[in-house]
Amino acid sequence: MQIRVGHGYDVHRLTEGRKLILGGVEIPWERGLLGHSDADVLTHAVMDALLGAAALGNIGQHFPDTDPAYEGADSILLLEKTVELLAREGWKVGNIDSTVAAQRPKLMPYLDKMRENIAAACGVPPDRISVKATTEEGLGFTGSGEGMSAHSVCLIERI
Length: 159
Ligand code: MG
Description:
By secondary structure, the protein is α+β, with helices and mostly antiparallel strands. The protein has five helices and seven strands; from the N terminus they run ββββαααβαβαβ. Helix 4 links the parallel strand 5 and strand 6 (129-134). The radius of gyration is 15 Å and the shape is globular. The relative contact order is 0.26. It binds magnesium ion. The site of magnesium ion has 5 residues, from strand 1 and helix 1.
């Protein structure tokens, strides 16, 4: 079986007056992530990992933040489009492992729902999708609550 590995990384700033959406889950919180789309930092990292594995460039090339079509876009739908792009090139999702770095709020109660959303968009069972969360011990921009970041690695397989 032909396989490829990919890596994605994304950062968004936290600000007042925005919804906090991670892995397609709206999380009740006093601030949300700033961005052109829904600013779902986790889903963006997943998309970049998949695009990277297939050597298809990055999220900004396929879904530019200058395009009004993507204003307030649901990133889970963009992930579905990304999976379609890969399928056209003969690739399907094997598995994905991701980590969100956020000082607050506690994300544990929402992780399984994020896995389900990402799995559904990728057309795979949730046991192929892992989402983890970590604080960064109060250090750096995630630790201070200035923003959140997400890392993702994936394996894709030839269809
Ligand atoms: Mg992003």
